[in-house]
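If you are new to this repository, start here. Below is one unmodified record pulled from the training split, so you can see the exact layout before writing a loader.
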Amino acid sequence: MNNDAVRNSGAGTRPAATVLIADDEEAPRTQLAAALAAAWPEARMVAACVNGVDAWDAFLEHEPDVCLLDIRMPGLSGIEVAQRIGGRARVVFVTAHADHALAAFDAGAVDYVLKPVEAARLAQALTRVQAGLRAHPTGASANPSGAAHDGGLGAPTNTHHPSARAEAAGASPAPAALQALLAELAAQIRRPAPLQVIQAGVGKEVRMIRVEDVLYFESDTRYTRVVWRSPGGPGAPAQDGEALIRTPLKELLVQLDAQQFWQVHRSVIVAQRHVEAAVRVDENNLQLRLRGRSERLPVSRHFQWLFKGQ
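And here is the target side for that same chain:
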């Protein structure tokens, strides 16, 4: 993530709205930041990201009120990032004239601005955004206690339901029509096949770890910790192991099968089939217990919606 973010001071007694921008090209990113400063000087830009993976990670870190997302970015597209955000922030897309999504945006009344971004056009979009924020606050301001709704714990709910994600985070659910439109556009994006094998240095060996054997991934300072369980065989018991790899967790996330591996914390991705139970520690904290393991994995507020009783 590019941390040369412009930080504007807020005005008045209300906290300044926070904004995240994302564009993989430096010149448009700088232009977008300048247009934002001119169109909404009271806003505070908390991150300027160079790809979709960084944008999603920065969203989890900063919980901005507004996200300005380029559609075409490596890792995760702006559309895919918006799907993950759900209703927890107001989203304005940044797009080129020739982008195939433009007609769909027009038909679906989705906020967008065209490149090169002009302050006047951005101001029009942001006027609607500000009106929406006044009516339905998003981000941390919508849920200052940081607590998720406690609907009971048990089997996980649908992992690809952004409206449920938004509701659990305390924000207004994203309109179903908008989510349907984003899902339709995201389905047109060609993604590589999910990762099958991870190569990890273990002592003098390069261990070939099958992704299907992985229990969870966890960020460990500069590395990612991989914890796995080999299935064993006739007369041989299953064995647990772990290793450190250099691939950042946020980059692994987009290479994994989202149906099998769930992000439950900014620093943790877990194989859902190995989750035995979600345990409520207190009003704000939730932990996962894995089958046959003693450790507990934290679940952050953003992802507690995954575990609700049916």
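Two things worth knowing about this chain: Residues 119-135 form the longest helix (17 residues). Confidence is low (pLDDT under 50) at residues 1-13, 140-173.
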